[in-house]
Write a structure and sequence with these properties.
The protein has 184 residues and is mostly helical. It has helices at 2-6, 9-32, 38-49, 74-92, 140-157, 168-171, 173-183; strands at residues 52-56, 113-116, 121-125. It is globular, with a radius of gyration of 20 Å.
């Protein structure tokens, strides 16, 4: 199974460490930045320091064992899964999301990664931890070349997207206005 091959706790830890190293590099670059004000740099670093790293797979998955798709057609199985998903989604209304189940809605075997602006997280999904991007025996330079710059650096950069999203609670109304003003 794919998770067994590349999803060891050691692999997960290596990915978390790589993500933290990239975030630390962003922090260094922000500190050395000459065109942004000290206040803007401070706010950007505060946001950077709050990024949560989700690597490989969550420690907790939703239990879907009650969905019975045995002895039915593809169409009926699809209907049962859709009904169970709808029931689950309805039960979540008005509830706080379980942050330990960060891969909810992902196919974790997909070769992908993402930044979640509502939670300020980078999500490095296990599907991208396979050949040719990842191998347990890669040295640190290979990890940076294949995953660090291409995947992790890209996703961390989304924390600073201004056009698409910038939730108020990361900066506060006044600080966000000043942040945007300083950029232009």
């Amino acid at each position: 199974m794919y998770i067994a091959k590349y999803g060891s706790e050691e692999d997960k830890k290596r990915m978390e460490d790589l993500c933290q190293q990239v975030i630390d590099t962003y922090r260094e670059l922000l500190n050395e930045n000459s065109w942004a004000s000290d206040e803007v740099k401070k706010k950007a670093i505060e946001k950077l320091d709050k990024i949560a790293i989700h690597a490989a797979y969550p420690d907790k998955f939703r239990d879907t064992s009650d969905i019975d798709i045995s002895d039915c057609s593809l169409i009926e199985a699809t209907r049962r899964i859709w009904m169970a998903e709808t029931k689950h989604d309805m039960s979540c209304l008005g509830q706080n999301l379980d942050k330990d189940m960060w891969a909810e809605g992902f196919n974790i075997l997909t070769c992908n990664a993402g930044y979640d602006p509502s939670a300020n997280t980078i999500n490095m999904i296990i599907g991208m931890m396979g050949e040719t991007f990842y191998s347990s025996d890669m040295d640190v330079e290979e990890m940076y070349a294949s995953i660090g710059a291409f995947w992790v650096g890209h996703e961390v950069s989304h924390a600073f997207d201004l056009v698409i999203h910038q939730p108020e609670h990361y900066f506060g109304r006044k600080a966000l206005t000043e942040y945007i003003h300083d950029l232009y």
